[in-house]
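User: Mind token order:
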Amino acid sequence: MTIKQLIEKTTPLAVVGNDQMMVSGLEIDSRKVLPGGSFIAMRGTQTDGHQFIGKALELGATCIICETMPETLQDGVTYVQYPNTESVVGPLATHFFGDPTLRMKLIGVTGTNGKTTIATLLYEMFRRFGYKVGLCSTVCNYIDGKPIPTECTTPDPITLNRLLGQMADEGCEYAFMEVSSHSVAQQRIGGLTFAGGLFTNLTRDHLDYHKTFEAYRDAKKGFFDMLPRDAFAITNADDKNGMFMVQNTKAEVKTYGQRTDADFKARILEESFEGMNLSVDGREVFVQFVGRFNVSNLLAVYGAAIMLGQQPEEVLIALSAMKPVNGRFEAIRSPQGVTAIVDYAHTPDALVNVLTTINEILRKPHQCWTVCGAGGNRDKGKRPLMAQEAVRHSDRVIITSDNPRNEEPQAIINDMLAGLTDEERRTVLSIVDRREAIRTACTLAQPGDVILVAGKGHEDYQIIQGVKYHFDDHEVIRECFGIS
């Protein structure tokens, strides 16, 4: 499209140059600019994109979108100025890639825990129903059945709109997407039209970025504030922030819950490590999931499917056939009768949810072992809380490395141990090497015991001093158990 067509739905402060020139691409990373492309200079938290305008021009950019005009303007280049480029990159990208969310129904899932499970199950369910479907998640992006690798929960606006555009071009009727607090605060989802939104729960997370819990909460709420009138908003009535999220939304509000009166309601009839018998809106169904937190996840999926026009009986049949998402309460059993649970739990609340479920099913005197750590270069305030909850809800605890990133692993472990009393510290093992920590738990656990290996879930790597190494909790556990 031409530059004039690209910017026609926005209000720039100034346009200098020929706005009839064609734009062949849109980038916020100057290194990715191709000849004839447009570069958007954004002021990020780490770097200022205006510093890289020269690099973009060297690579052939013919359109520069910026907040501050360069001192020297290059001939043959068009410059478009906005007061805030972060606020327009989403709408520009959406328009450039053909307004993909007007060509299919996009459903967003936000909250602290459960986003990946809910989005993935909706993706799998609607494929079972015969639709072409897209998925944008922490684990992997999919265009119908084709995997597209991902590095973050919600990509930057250009990557996201390019992906959604491909989904729409390939005939996807639905797309299900995790919506992170970062993506709302940084306006990465600006310009997208959502047909529905789901709220899971809210507990402490990402305070390294948001600084306060209130700012984190308000970022999540901002997603529901932007939903249009013809959309739906499904919220968790059991969560104390559930109704706060939707108090200003224009969308049709529906609720789900186990403990409170709600539009979509369920209760556990029977539970084991193999699954649960549930009553969902008065209908009984067996699911291959475990734990009250998963009942909430399944209710959100059920409610969304109903709001998208599916029949309750068909939805429950589909749920009964589904299996847990990779790294979400995945059980691995040894020939000797030890059960290992691999789970992505990396917040205090998520750890409590998983351990509570294990303890509700575990038959004493068998013991619950927990192997966990905390990520480097992330919210340090939750580290002692993670250790406290692990000790409070486990019989034995081994604190180890997670993703140290650029921090010293032992320093992270020390931050976790600082949350414990002297007596508690004497009962806890700390083993820096994660492989050795898992191996120790597998060696010491007795038949009937359960080992929770928490924090990494689906991840198949560790980042140590900035270097990415292959590491998969599943592989290590199977090796220790002597199974393939």
